[in-house]
Amino acid sequence: MTAITFIGQDGTRYDIDAPDGSSVMQAAIRNDVPGIDADCGGACACATCHVYVDEAHAERLAPMDAMEEDMLDFALDVRPNSRLSCQIRVRPDLAGLVLTVPARQA
Question: What is the pTM of this model?
Fold first, then answer.
């Protein structure tokens, strides 16, 4: 298990112990983090699991692939630190990862 934190749309913190190997999106859904809609169920076919990665942790993530980058074109309020949570795999070296849920999903 790896500790990650979501900051909800209203500023509420959700401190979660996520199973290693799962996606960050799966951890959010299992822990009822509001604002992570995950309409496609993690298939990288929508942008409803969009999150902002805290700058201090961004370099620890695997690089974004072309499919994720294309899907982010459908997200609202995309920023340089935007990622799709379905594409981030939980692993021990991501302990302390902080993700903010945008005000709205696409």
Answer: 0.94
